[in-house]
Amino acid sequence: MRHDPPDGPGPGGDDAPATGDQATGDRATGDPAVGASRPARWLVTTAVFAVGAVLLAAGWSARRPAPVGDRTVGQVTRVGVLPGDSLPGYATASRAELAALTAGAYALVSFDRYVAPGELPALLAGVEVTAVVVRVPLPDRQTEVVRLPAQRLPQDVTAGMAGLADRKDREAADQRTRAAAGTDPATRRGYETGAQVAAREAAGYRSACACVYAAVVRAEPAALRATAGRDGVRAVDPAPEVTRLDRTVFLPPLPEQRDVARPPADTATPPG
User: Fold this and answer.
1) Distance CA 212, CA 114 (A)
2) Which range marks the domain in which residue 78 is found?
3) In this predicted model, what pLDDT tens digit does every residue of 56-93 receive, in sequence order?
4) Which pTM does this prediction carry?
5) Which H or E element spans position 238?
6) Cβ–Cβ contacts within 10 Å for residue 97, how many?
7) Which of 45, 74, 212, 235 is such that its CA lies 20 to 30 A from the CA of 200?
8) How far is 62 from 38, CA to CA, in rounded Å?
């Protein structure tokens, strides 16, 4: 769903949202990286569908925060879910918007499980892919959410994961160095935990893990509806207001969450 549609063009910005170093809103790290009412055309088109679906979609948009301003980027649109959002409500409202869509648009495709790069060509056949959202799903650990540019599937995704593995190796080495130099036990344990998590992320990405849980695509309505009907696809959230990806943050729901969107638990026991 749309959270903050931009009012108009503004200065250029970087395509990097909420996931550490990429445009995703780092929901997994607890740092989310971005509605106004629908345009008249959307309301007229939707009127032909069930009243209940219209009211649900309208209610979803109405409770969104005001557009977020940024002096370097302009107003930023957030597409997806925020902490506290109802996930069943999000899925229902996305279906209503998709049914009302009349022109090609960007969309956030979320999966009902973490998938490997090799599964993406079948899941996303017939649509133009611009990026995927990845996270290594470690039990009871918050891990970094990253948006990887990807046009060729699965080659661009596996290449992006290889680059992430190298970066995570460097992070793990840095955390180990800091732990060795630390004098405070609690601080040292924090660095040791960070090193362990980064090393496990590196290993996952290097093996081209089942770590993809969403994609940003662009397609005509018929192709988006066909994608929504595939096994493994949780929701297709169309975003016709989006014209520039560098001013958009995509926040897909985590596959393991079914009721309310929230950051993943970080309750694993730290090193002794």
Assistant:
1) 5
2) 18-251
3) 344 444 334 444 444 544 688 999 999 999 999 999 99
4) 0.74
5) strand 233-239
6) 26
7) 235
8) 9
